[in-house]
Amino acid sequence: MNEPNDDCGNTVDPTTWYASTFPTSLPHPTLSSRFQSADRLLTNVFHRQATLQGAVTAIRNAGATSQYIFLPGKHYEHAQTYTGAGGSGNGDTGSNILAITDKDGTKSKLIIDVHQYLDSDGSGQHSECTTSSVSDSNTAGGVGLQSLATWLARNGRQAILTETGGGNTASCVTYLKQQLGFLK
Q: At 180, is the secondary structure helix, strand, or coil?
């Protein structure tokens, strides 16, 4: 059996490397300690929503205290994952992610990671686009970026759209321009 490692080739003790609930296969603390003085470093915690607080704490404990950390949701990070149906409350990820804080209790360096594709089911797998995903109407999941922006403002949080797009078609070009225009 292979020893657990931190994806950087270092053998780790799985009982002490992270908080006990944090997966031992992720390299965040090791990389964070190596780049703790880099002022232009972003850390993106991938699809481990249940252990986000452990990841943030481990990254900060490793010395990376001034960098931004992107926090993922679940269900592919669509807007409705955070806001809930209709954009008026908290989705199953929204309530959890709002509770994540830095060690000092602040949230300003913790950025919510959002994906919002332009096709009919929000997957980004269809060549035709049907929405800009700005308004709630005709947006997969029924929650657009405008509702997400309102939710973010209400909760004092920030987000970044890290994935979007569609096929190489006229409809996708049109809708992508609308979406990017909204983000300005």
A: helix
Q: What is the token pair recorded at 118?
A: 């332009």
Model pLDDT for residues 105-137, shown as the tens digit of each residue:
999 999 999 989 999 888 889 999 999 999 988
28's tokens: 């965040």
Q: Where are the alpha helices (DSSP H) in 24-168?
A: 28-34, 52-61, 79-83, 92-98, 145-155
Beta-strand pair 158-163/110-115: parallel
Given a contact cutoff of 8 angstroms between Cβ atoms, the answer to whether 102 and 56 are in contact is yes
**The tokens of 106 are what?**
């602040």
> Can you give the pTM of this predicted structure?
0.76
Among 38, 37, 55, 57, residue whose Cα is nearest residue 47? 55
- Smallest CA-to-CA distance from 17 within 40, 65, 51 is with 51
Place of tokens 């070009």: 173
Beta bridge partners of 11: 5
DSSP β-bridge partners for residue 158: 111
Residue 64: both structure tokens together: 């990376």
Buried b (16+ CB within 10 A) or exposed e, 15-42: eebbeeebebebbbbbbbeebbeeeebe
